[in-house]
Amino acid sequence: MNGFIFDLDGVIVDTAKYHYQAWKQLANKIGVEFSLEQNEQLKGVSRVDSLKKILHWGQKTISGEEFMALMTEKNDQYLGLIETMNEDEVLPDVSKVLNYLSKKHQKIALGSASKNAVGILNKVNLTPFFDAIIDGNQVTHAKPDPEVFLNAAKQINIQPEQCVVFEDAVAGIQAANAANMVSIGIGDAHVLHEADYVFKDFTEMSLEFIDKLINPKTVCN
Ligand code: B16
Ligand code: MG
């Protein structure tokens, strides 16, 4: 039996567009420009580090109190945007892969930087697939630190070397590699070149490939 650890934002659901809207509104309010390219750099980055980056880009210095208020404001805005999210927003073939792994009795975990992960998984009705959920509320060191994935492996009781990570962020791929896990990038092959394998999305991943991950000794052409 192996462990399969999924990142959430960008792998299971596309919440980047909601994070973008919420951050953009907040940044513009404090007089900072915020582009889609900058939003790309926030993928996989924690809420607190995202705000630090935005303030740095805008060369703004604020008090600790203001910082906390802005964090709350962004999250409230984000929660409003994802309120009506449902299973229609699950990315293509994610459910097919989860069903297959579950049918093959593999252990499945979530390894996300988001503090809203549990709520989102519930909204899209995927919670029952997960044997463990490690999110931003349970880690002290953000990706590229391997903590989130090592923690997930521990919870499902599978050795790190027998775990596979699906990630859309460079920092997440680096975290998986640092944890000695098989890293699978979901997205652009150039951006995610440090991953062991890269797929544009799950529609490109065959069940034969997943079989190979489940049992590396399986010969697969
Ligand atoms: P929250 P992941 C990450 O989730 C997002 O990619 C990133 O853009 C976001 O800032 C971070 O979660 C924190 O999210 O504000 O909901 O705690 O990709 O690690 O699943
Ligand atoms: Mg992600």
What does this structure look like?
- By secondary structure, the protein is of the alpha/beta class.
- It folds into two domains: 3-14 and 88-218, Rossmann fold (3-Layer(aba) Sandwich), CATH 3.40.50; 16-82, Putative phosphatase, domain 2 (DNA polymerase, domain 1, Orthogonal Bundle), CATH 1.10.150.240.
- 42% of the residues lie in helices and 11% in strands.
- The chain is built from nine helices and six strands.
- It has helices at 16-29, 36-40, 47-57, 64-82, 94-103, 117-123, 147-156, 170-178, 207-214, and strands spanning 3-6, 107-111, 132-134, 163-167, 182-186, 197-199.
- The chain has a six-stranded parallel sheet with strand order 3-2-1-4-5-6, with helices on both faces.
- Helix 8 (170-178) links the parallel strand 4 and strand 5 (182-186).
- Helix 1 (16-29) packs across helix 4 (64-82).
- The longest helix has 19 residues, at 64-82.
- The chain is globular, with a radius of gyration of 18 Å.
- The relative contact order is 0.16.
- Bound molecules: 1,6-di-O-phosphono-beta-D-glucopyranose (B16) and magnesium ion.
